[in-house]
C-alpha cells in the first residue's frame, strides 16, 4: 500500500541523487542527527512561508500541520541528542539540503495565488519523498545508536504520512 | 401520590443503569504512528477511546463521516452507533489506518 518499490527507486534516482550524492560514505551519528534536524527545519521554513502567503484554507491548514509536527519532532530530536551527549555536526548533506531549500523558497516567494499553492504543495510531495528515500536507504541503516535509529524510524513514518497528506491536498487543488 | 415524582426519576436511573452495565470502553493505543489494535469489534453504545502516546496530534477520521481529534499525549473518545462499521485513518498521517466493526 505504500509507494511501489520501483517507482520509489526511480524517484530516488531523480531527486535524491544530487542532494545526497556527497554522502556516499556512511554518515556518523552526529552528522545524521544534524541532517534529520535540518530536514525538519527546512519544512518548517517552507510552512511559515505558506502560512504567510497562501489564501487557501486547505494549504494553510496543511502548512500549520507541518509546522506543528516538525517542531514537535525536532524538539524530541534535541532532547535525544542532549541525553546522548551528541553534538550535531554540520556536513555536506546538510549544507546541500539547506542550499536547495533556499533556492526553492526564493522560487516560491515570487509566486502568488493558485500558482504558489500548487508549487508549494508539489514541492512538499517531492521533498517528503526525497527525505523518505534518504531515511530508508542512508540515515536509518547508518545510525549506530539504537535510540537515534528508533527516532529516525518514527520520523520516516511521519514523513511518509506527510507525503500522503500532501498528495491528498494536491488532489484537492485540481 | 406524594412520591409520584420519584417514578420517572427511577425509570431514568434504571435505563442508565442498564446502558452502562452492558456498554464497554474499548481502548486503542496510538504509539509511534500506529493504532493498536488496528481492528476492533464493538457493540452499538460502546465507547472507543484513543490513547495517544505520541508527541504529535492525530485524528481518527472516517472519509465522508465523523472525525475525532486526538491531541498529543492525550486521549479522546466517541460512542459508537450501529452504523459505525468503518475504516478510519489519521488525516494528518494517512498511512495510519484502523477499522471498527459493530457486532449485531
Ligand atoms: Cu497521525
Automatic annotation (TrEMBL), chain A:
Keywords: Signal. Residues 1-23 form the signal peptide. This is DUF4142 domain-containing protein. Residues 28-168 form the DUF4142 domain. It holds the Pfam family DUF4142. It comes from the Bacteria.
From TrEMBL, chain B:
InterPro entries: Amicyanin, Cupredoxin, EfeO_Cupredoxin, ET_Amicyanin. Residues 1-21 form the signal peptide. This is Amicyanin. Keywords: Signal. It comes from Ollibium composti. Residues 9-102 form the EfeO-type cupredoxin-like domain. The lineage of its organism: Bacteria, Pseudomonadati, Pseudomonadota, Alphaproteobacteria, Hyphomicrobiales. Pfam families: Cupredoxin_1. CDD domains: Amicyanin.
